Amino acid sequence: MLTENPPAGRTGKFSKYLIYAVGEIILVVIGILIALQINNWNENKKIEAVKNTNYLNLLEDLRTDLIHIDKKVDELNYGIALYNDYLKTYKTPNLTMKDVLNNQNKLDFITTTLRFENSTIESLENTGEIKLIPSDLRKKLTELKRNQDYLVEINTQWNTNYFDRVENAGIYGSQPHFQNRIKNQPLLREKLGVAENLDKIIWSIEIAMFYKKMNEENSLASLKEIKSEISEVVELINLELKE
User: Fold this and answer.
1) Who has greater pLDDT, 119 or 16?
2) Domain ranges of the chain
3) Using CA atoms, how far apart are residues 174 and 198, in angstroms rounded to an integer?
4) Terminal Cα-to-Cα distance of the chain (whole angstroms)
5) What CA–CA distances, in Å, run from 98 to 85, 171, 194, 204, 219?
6) Separation of alpha carbons 52 and 33, rounded Å
7) How far apart are CA 113 and CA 155, in angstroms?
């Protein structure tokens, strides 16, 4: 029995419908791909905007740190210079305890407090946006922060030792510079027992200023290293902003 072929018109319509359907599918796929591409482009643009904002904030923090470092370097050099001048006073023969105490009172008893502006990098670490930064720059930033935190901790420990010694001087009868304020107060001087404790006062101040000078020299060297690290980080950030 012969099979009857479908009419030519029906076959042509089906072929046209199939081509149309395939075309529609292709157009939909192309539309989806274009939408995904646009979405990816927008997301990448947002990410780049976030990165650039973070870079600018980091640069601002680092500029603040550099200003702080320059100020502290001047303070540290001043304290060290006074201490070195104090040491030279011992070249004078036959110093009395009062002479030594007067020379000590010319020293700088104010300690240097170190701090760094880490608000941006801490925010990046907390939000996870630190991962948006290239690994080499991210490593430099985290290393810089670690060194800054360590220096602040060490500086605090040295200052604690210094304050303990200064407090001892007060226990023994006189705080630094207090001698100058009670020169014309013989009754007060006698009551405080300043004369009897003069050797202990001098010794406590001597040790305190030794701790202070050691801290100043250590901090000065560390600040110079941190300043060099900051310069490297700033250079890497500026390169990222140019890309």
Assistant:
1) 119
2) 10-242
3) 9
4) 77
5) 17, 18, 11, 15, 32
6) 28
7) 8
| Listed residue (90, 82, 44) closest to 209, CA to CA | 82
Listed residue (208, 129, 219, 142) closest to 175, CA to CA: 208
For the stretch 58-114, pLDDT in tens is 999 999 999 999 999 999 999 999 999 999 999 999 999 889 988 998 999 889 899
Residue whose entry in the numeric block shows the structure tokens 């420990």? 157
Tell me the pTM: 0.78
Burial degree of 58 (CB within 10 A; 0-12, 13-18, 19+): buried
Q: What is the pLDDT of residue 79?
A: 95
Task: Specify whether the CB–CB gap between 236 and 136 falls below 8 A.
Answer: yes
Per-residue pLDDT, 85: 97
CA separation for the pair 189, 196 (Å, rounded): 10
Runs of H (alpha helix) within the chain: 8-88, 97-104, 119-127, 135-171, 178-181, 186-192, 198-242
Closest CA to 176 of 77, 94, 100, 93: 100
- Choose between 86 and 190: higher pLDDT: 86
State the SS3 of 101-119.
HHHHCCCCCCCCCCCCCCH
Whether 161 shows a pLDDT value over 80: the answer reads: yes
> Residue 176, SS3?
coil
Q: Distance (Å, rounded) from C-alpha 142 to C-alpha 75?
A: 27
Residues 36-51 pLDDT 10s: 888 788 777 888 888 9
